[in-house]
Amino acid sequence: MINDGNIPRGSVIVSGRVIAEYRGLYKVLTEKGEYNASITGKMYYKASEETDLPAVGDCVRIDVSGGSTAVLREILPRKSVFVRKAAGPVSQSQTLAANFDYVFIVTSMNYDFNIGRIDRYVSITWESGGIPVIILSKADLVVEREEIINSILENYPGVSFHMTSNVTGEGMEEVREYFTDNKTVVFLGSSGVGKSSLLNYLYGEELMEVKNLRGNIDKGQHTTTHRQMVRLPDGGNVIDTPGMRELGLWHTEEGVEKSFSDIHEKIEKLAQHCRFSDCNHKNEPGCAVQDAIKMGDLSEEQYERYKKLQREARRMEIKISAKARIDEHNKRKAFAKKIRNQNKVKW
To answer: Phi, psi at residue 238, to the nearest 5°?
Structure first.
């Protein structure tokens, strides 16, 4: 991982973990206590993209010789990292969390349940190196559950899910088991789905403010404004993230295939029986995939969701590659200009 390559003589270097991020300033927890740390200009310059910069959950080495204000010198290798496309039209990445074991995909059972959104969360989670767990919150507000349960079982075979309620305590003991052995769990989900309420329940007190419900839609106002990691009293860590209006894919082609593993395998097998070896599985005659859909052997709804995410992931890969070529070209131009300036003869 990145380090600034410059540790001054007399520096006091300690290891720690980033527990919060505030616009370029990082709070780092060490055995000596908490420090506010900033990165050096050299580290920032060496970062080729945002994912090279520190993120909540990162294990780091900091220089504490300056007192309460520290300098972050090195980011240690990550075992997992959650990256999405940053909001907006520009093709840039954004790191949400690092070094976690599970990702809780929190979605409310009463209004927020959306298969298309869960597809994205599950796909990016598989790509991150973490294990997805679907948390169906606010279970106390829903009587008819069978449709939702069947949808989860059908669309995400092998992915664990739990129905929870911070009001009745339903499912909470099952959820606690994920934090044994000092495991780290990332909370992801839209605003108001109950991430803060779940964190408060696990922590045992009102750690995060949860605003009153708005109107009669049973939707709380999410109050998390920055990413942070919380150590639970009984052990384990929660990385809480603000509610996301947009979740763009970033390097997720493999994650999409794993998220739709059953569909992907069926298509691979069926494609061997298509009339044309380069069949796009659309309107070509003799397409075994389309025949399977017509016969009811392949879900058209699942197939279309899979193809939609696959197309988006591939478009993003093309954009990322184009951006990388442009960045490399600009770096070479800057280097060439520097060399020309150094070689100028001064009269």
So the answer is: -115, 125
